[in-house]
Amino acid sequence: MLREDLFKNLTAHCKEYGFIFPSSELYDGLAAVYDYGQNGVELKLNIRQYWWEAMTRLHQNIVGLDSAIFMHPKIWEASGHLSAFNDPLIDNKDSKKRYRADVLVEDWIAKQEEKLEKEVGKAAKRFGEAFDRAQFVHTNARALELQQSIDSTRTRLANLLTGNDLAGLKQLIEELEIVCPISGTRNWTDVRQFNLMFATRLGSVSEEANEIYLRPETAQGIFVNFLNVQKTGRMRIPFGIAQVGKAFRNEIVARQFTFRMREFEQMEMQYFVAPGSEMEWFEYWKEARLQWHLALGLGQENYRYHPHDKLAHYANAAVDIEFNFPFGFKEVEGIHSRTDFDLSNHARVSGRKVQYFDADRNESYTPYVVETSIGLDRTILMVLSACYDEEHLASDDGKEDIRKVLHLPPALAPVKVAILPLVRKDGMPERAEAILHDLRLRTACHYEEKDTVGKRYRRQDAIGTPYCVTVDTQTLEDGTVTLRERDSMQQQRIPAERIYEAIAPTTELNSLLKKL
């Protein structure tokens, strides 16, 4: 199946099985805004908890914060968002569709990378085990041409964005002969900047209200609380502040399901360090955050680092962790060395002293910051994309049977174990409910008795439930149940009182944390 078709099936699956719904669907929806259903919200909570525990429980010097969404408007002046938080937009005059100019170029680069990989793939088949990818890319004329085109275009794009050269950006789009995906024409407008922040008004009377902004990131709430947390927690450098919260961006080109939304959730940690040590900590967190991802078991080959060609106004180093989504490698998390930009600017704009007294150095200074910032919604999409599968099985009548299954890491699954009476009679429902009552205080359970047990297995496979327990006549005789494992579909008989013992090693959150 083509990756595009697989992704289309996944989005339909998310709605059908209660993971993600279009927001306000009763009123024909709201573009790029989504609601999480009964299974999606549990998956979201589990991923959030995995991140939170990895940050705060496994690090003695990282504490949590929950700052407000509404903040003083001068905060966004100090952070640079009022002047620098813009996207370069371009319209196609024929389709009337609007695009991010930089994304058009990035998509063009991605297509060239796909062409390069096809050339590499053909060569790998031809040469077998003797194939040397690096040598091929540097010696084959076609591969060399593609790689040079990719590198030169990426460098040129970074320079244009850094220099805010909008005319040059349009010229690049024209030189690359990029067409509108809708109209197929190259009839472009000029490129112009668009600020992404949502503005609203705070006050009881509109004439007297002050204009404020919905926060476009959660990080600034951490920076303005740096002194509060440091003093009340008696924190010593280096230390971190972690936060999970909503952020809002007026994305004009929102697409690819929940990958780019106007209302989204971030999981951010700002790590405050002594000046001069920031690059050491940048490398540490770069590696530590990749290990967090790899512990999920989604495949190391699906991740890669992507260093920034264009650095943000606050950074002296930045790298993205990209994941191989069905629509290509895209950013899921960023690690940034933010220098002392934020704390220094808040000190300047507020007129307050924002420094740390280092007893070991016997001096006061403005700490540098290393940031890890991961999108919770993107992480959910990452997990769903990697785990969704359509398995073709042979049925009893010889016909092909398709099993839709989410191979979710058991610790993240919305439901850890489903309790299923074989039939709705002979005391089996009552015995199954007694097992449910015993287990639900220790793990996430689901009880279901409608339809055949085979159909119930398939429904649980579709929502990613790692284990199913079936109560049958033998259960009533000797107290044993059938424990079915999702991925292998293997079954075994175990005593009912040992169910939690059997599933806990994989379903407990600690099973992931131990890998870190």
Structure description:
The protein has 516 residues and is an alpha+beta fold. The protein has three domains: 236 residues, BirA Bifunctional Protein, domain 2, CATH 3.30.930.10; 110 residues, 2-Layer Sandwich (Herpes Virus-1); 114 residues, Rossmann fold. The chain has 18 helices and 23 strands. The strands form seven sheets. It has a seven-stranded mixed beta sheet with strand order 3-9-10-16-13-12-11. Helix 2 crosses helix 13 and helix 6 packs across helix 7. The chain starts with a helix and ends with a helix. 33% of the residues are buried.
Tell me briefly what this model is:
With 516 residues, the chain is of the alpha+beta class. Helices cover 39% and strands 25% of the residues.
